[in-house]
Amino acid sequence: MELKKLKRLKREQLLELMLNQQQTIESQADTIKKLEELVEQKEIKLNEVGSIAEASLALNGVFEAAQAAADQYLLSIKAMYKDEKRNE
């Protein structure tokens, strides 16, 4: 609103205008608070997803190492079996 128009308003009109502005500010503050909470929840979920993905990758590495160990064990058993057959 222009300064000239504000100067022409009566005290009651100015107080009403200020009250409306205060209500708008409070409403916007509530909206901001709710949006901040939503953002925080999303960030927590993203962190959890990141943690799950990291855990999955770590487990994948463990499984790969276990598979490699199992493969090596099978190779050594097969080699021992071949050696035994040769010695018979």
List the helices and strands and how they pair.
Layout: H1 3-8, H2 11-87
Coiled coil: 18-52
Protein name: DNA repair protein
Keywords: Coiled coil
Please give a structural write-up:
This protein has helices spanning 3-8, 11-87. The chain is built from two helices and no strands. Helices cover 94% and strands 0% of the residues. The protein has 88 residues and is mostly helical.
Distance between the termini: 106 Å
Q: What is the number of helices?
A: 2
Helix content: over 70%
Overall SS class: mainly alpha
Give me the strand/helix succession.
HH
Shape: rod-shaped
> Into how many domains do the coordinates divide?
1
Extended strand count: 0
Q: Compute the gyration radius: what is it?
A: 36 Å
The largest sheet, given as strand count, sense and whether it forms a barrel, is: none
Low-confidence stretches: none
Average the pLDDT over all residues and give the rounded result. Answer: 85
Beta-strand percentage? Answer: under 5%
Relevant terms:
single chain, 88 residues, 2 helices, 94% helix, DNA repair protein, coiled coil
Summed up, what is this model?
The protein is mostly helical and 88 residues long.
